[in-house]
Write a structure and sequence with these properties.
The protein has 254 residues and is of the alpha/beta class. The chain contains eleven helices and eight strands. The C terminus is likely disordered.
């Protein structure tokens, strides 16, 4: 039993989070991935906040009593020599239960997740941070379902969140940035259209030469959602869509 515990201890890293907590990061775990014709082997890490008085051994001991199945934990898929390569791509991807898992066409999240994985493998080095407390821009899955009902009545994503008493966007990237710094101390290039993600990394001096835009997967059922991202959240449009997709993206609301 002690040998098994030692194996786990060697895979746990405690990262300072704040005055009261650490982030307990576990990994890497070898994770072979196959999506259609796309195949790659990633190194997978997961993390969660823990009391900073706990040792690695105590974290392991308390896992059965933490009821982790009732919450969500974030993780990161790493590809290539992430710690040492001069140039690495990363994506900070907010969990989207409907888009990532079910393939919902109300958003472009599933498309962005899978395209980012392909881009990173083609580039040769990078990481995808999958952020579990970001559902619905931080309002949670149940609240997101209510927001969807309001959107079916004509509200856009921002208006629906406001109607439920939420801000436009409550997501934080602080924990993910701490994990990024623990995995790599060199600059990175961010795959994103979101200026808030760029600003979060720039504030920590972690950005390299700007960003790589990722537009695509535009449909008649999500073009208003994407248009709202541009008009109300300031998402950057400077490449990544073909002419047909741009025409849909900028279509007047019916």
């Amino acid at each position: 039993m002690q040998k098994k515990i030692d194996i786990l201890l060697n895979k746990i890293q405690l990262i300072p989070r704040n005055e009261a907590e650490n982030l307990s990061m576990v990994g890497p775990v070898c994770l072979p991935v196959k999506q259609g014709d796309f195949e790659a082997v990633f190194q997978w890490y997961s993390w969660l906040p823990v009391d900073n008085t706990l040792s690695k051994e105590e974290v392991i001991d308390r896992i059965p009593s933490m009821n982790l199945a009732f919450g969500q934990q974030s993780s990161v898929l790493v590809y290539g020599d992430f710690a040492h390569a001069d140039d690495a791509l990363i994506r900070m991807h907010s969990i989207c239960h409907t888009g990532d898992i079910f393939g919902s066409q109300r958003c472009d999240c599933g498309y962005q997740l899978h395209e980012s994985m392909k881009m990173i493998v083609e580039h040769g080095c990078g990481a995808i941070f999958y952020l579990a407390d970001h559902e619905g821009r931080g309002i949670g899955l149940f609240s997101k379902s209510l927001a969807y009902l309001l959107q079916e009545e004509g509200l856009d994503t921002v208006e629906a969140n406001h109607a439920l008493g939420f801000e436009d966007d409550t997501r934080s990237y602080e924990d993910a940035i701490k994990v990024l710094a623990a995995l790599r101390d060199k600059p990175v290039t961010l795959i994103t259209n979101n200026p808030n993600k760029l600003a979060a990394l720039e504030a920590h001096g972690l950005l390299a030469d700007g960003h790589i835009p990722l537009w695509g997967g535009v449909t008649e059922t999500n073009h208003f959602y994407l248009q709202t991202k541009i008009e109300k959240a300031g998402h950057i449009v400077n490449g990544g869509t073909d002419n047909e997709e741009r025409s849909v993206l900028y279509a007047t609301r019916a």
